[in-house]
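Q: Structure tokens for this one, please.
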Amino acid sequence: MMDKEVVMWLLGGLILIIGWFANKKIVDLEKADEGHRVEIAALKESKAEMKLHIAENYIKRSEIKDFMERIDTNIREIYNELKLKADK
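A: Here is the predicted structure, written as tokens:
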């Protein structure tokens, strides 16, 4: 009878130890998961900043292109006016 009790206590203790290690492993995995979430959030923020930077550069290039077109139009108008004056 005593042998069964000892075996039961040993099995119970073994189950508690296994449960403790399993719980510790789960907590470690949750911490690692949280760390990955933080890294993913940082990467998403970095990606958003890059998209903003690209958009700003696109706007700047678009503004420069519009400005160059206006200069080109002005030069053509001045050329046409000078040509008309020269033809008179």
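A few notes: The mean pLDDT is 85. The first helix runs from residue 2 to 87.
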